[in-house]
């Protein structure tokens, strides 16, 4: 049977009947074809015609009791605005000035862990930077759901201050839950250029950095170019360096490497002192997941998205709405 080009009453009656059987009764196209006495391709065309003629309306409804937990509209709008593969929006973020401890990131941590476990492949090398969001993600990983080949540290974490970066927890728990090998980067985040050149020639460190640069999946947070950043709190940076970075247009950092409002690396002496995966390699990675929460990180998150430094985003609803309102 051929569907008439003119859209006769009989054609539309059949299209309406096919759509009813498909959308309301749940029949397959093969079952519809048998019921209506047409071929399977014709059944498919009838269903498509019903939709094209406006005979079918499909509505996705969020139950009222879950409207504070599910944010499908914001997720789709952010994906379209920034060209992202996937966005997951969780609960509310913390206020500016609130302590940046992993517990306050539990909501985005659970959401990011679920996304990560869906996106990981068994042969993947997974790269992490350190920070409270990543600790929350590692804590939320569930055993037995996903696995990967290797978990690698993407930035140095050794500090002279009594500051816990959380990298050991991230690496050990992720490797355990994901049944992966763990590769540590036994180096500081920053050192003088000659020291960086020396430690980069070390076989263990160079192999670790190379593994991080070539990671199949990368998960990271962003830091602000301000005293609210964990780098300042952990005494990795001082006020003079921050002032210089801000004067050059820096608004945020990933793995200790700063970028401007367009996500372009800010090149200073600090870049030559960094022991971490360069932003160019982050941008080139096919599966990058940015986890962001808290108003202090809104500007840095926007810049990272503008610079295509993330393919996927997990953020709180306050951050999502701010990003959608941004120019």
Topology:
Elements: H1 9-24, H2 29-36, H3 40-52, H4 72-82, E1 86-90, H5 106-119, E2 125-128, H6 132-140, E3 150-153, H7 167-177, E4 181-183, H8 193-200, H9 203-213, E5 217-220, E6 223-224, H10 230-233, H11 239-247, E7 252-254, E8 257-259, H12 269-272, H13 279-284, E9 287-292, H14 298-306, E10 312-316, H15 317-325
Parallel strand pairs: 1-10, 2-3, 2-5, 3-4, 5-9, 9-10
Antiparallel strand pairs: 6-7, 7-8
According to CATH, the fold-level topology of the largest domain is Rossmann fold
Please estimate the helix content: 40-55%
Residue fraction in strands: 5-15%
Number of helix segments? 15
Characteristic terms for this protein:
327 residues; alpha/beta; Arc Repressor Mutant, subunit A; Rossmann fold; 2 domains; seven-stranded parallel beta sheet; three-stranded antiparallel beta sheet; 10 strands; 12% strand; elongated
Please describe what this structure looks like.
There is one protein chain. By secondary structure, this protein is an alpha/beta fold. Helix content is 43%, strand content 12%. It is built from 15 helices and 10 strands. The strands form 2 sheets. The protein has a 7-stranded parallel sheet, with helices on both faces. A 3-stranded antiparallel sheet has the order 6-7-8, covered by helices on one side. The protein is elongated. Mean pLDDT is 88; it is low at 1-6 and 95-99.
